Amino acid sequence: MRARTVVDYAVYLLVRVVICIVQAMPARTARQLARWLAWLFCKLLRVRAEVVDDNLRHAFPQLSAQQRSALALAMWEHLFVLVLEVAQAARKIHHTNWRDYATLRNEDVLVRMLLSDRPLIVVTGHLGNFELGGYLLGILGFPTYTVARTLDNPFLDRFVNRFRATTGQYIIPKKGGYDQIVSVLASGRTMTFLADQYAGPKGCWVQFFGRPASAHKAIALLSLENDAPIAVCAARRCGNAMQIELLVYAVADPRDCPANADPIRYLTQWYTTRLEELIRHTPEQYWWLHRRWKDTRRHQLQRKQAA
């Protein structure tokens, strides 16, 4: 057995032990643990502190340094609460009691689209508890297919994907999964994308919180090629841990793209703007530690030179 395999398996076992401990914790103790870990990562270790503060400074220029610091701490607490919620979900949330944990908004819109003969593209971001969102959709009887990067640790990768598949959330690997995505949409099923990550210098450049940001072209392209509406959705925490609001925020039909617009850019900017609006409602539930605005200055310089 290779040394890497031994290390990976040891990490996997450690994670399983931690999850067992978390599952046995009272809710109040788990929330206190999340607060302590948030303080540790935000105030003491200062993990990605400069990235978080720079992102918040550009997104909310009206906030003082003290307000940005408080928002960063709240974000870290949200991240750890998210992990605790996922660890406890399989034991607590079932087909018979999901209403104790989830509130549906605009559910008639979501159900109508999910039952339609047309394929559907669900777009969300690293906002709220997106993992529980997919889990709850499966409990409601609507399996989805999600694109995700394969974890470097194969034991953890299989473990995480087993949790996702418990209620019918199937994972397509980010690398080499395009044909599977096309097959899912061609058969009229539902694809889910986390659409708020940096897409590289050759992505579709759109405005996000007042700055150019590179977004993936594939979502708009798949929508156009498969006649699939795009639904911007979120699974936001409302109040205490394990209290999730499933929300259909907005829907775009590729048939309604303006005739004089580039349809790929139009749809990409449309869903990016809708995600921004959602994030502004609950900024503490967004992952500000992502380097979302890479190459922004280079892109602006290239546009000036082209002009």
Produce the secondary structure layout.
Blueprint: H1 3-24, H2 27-44, H3 49-59, H4 65-92, E1 102-105, H5 107-114, E2 120-124, H6 130-139, E3 144-148, H7 154-165, E4 169-173, H8 178-186, E5 190-194, E6 204-208, E7 211-215, H9 218-226, E8 230-237, E9 244-252, H10 263-281, H11 296-306
Largest sheet: 7 strands, mixed
Ends apart, CA distance between termini: 58 Å
Please give the number of β-strands: 9
Low-confidence stretches: none
General description of the model:
With 307 residues, the protein is an alpha/beta fold. The chain has one domain (3-306). 51% of the residues lie in helices and 17% in strands. The protein has 11 helices and 9 strands. The strands form 2 sheets. The chain has a 7-stranded mixed β-sheet, with helices on both faces. Helix 7 (154-165) links the parallel strand 3 and strand 4. Helix 3 crosses helix 4 (65-92) and helix 9 (218-226) crosses helix 10. The radius of gyration is 20 Å and the shape is globular. The model has no long low-confidence stretch (mean pLDDT 92).
Summary of the model, kept short:
This protein has 307 residues and is of the alpha/beta class. Helices cover 51% and strands 17% of the residues. The chain has one domain.
Key attributes of the depicted protein:
single chain, 307 residues, alpha/beta, two-stranded antiparallel ribbon
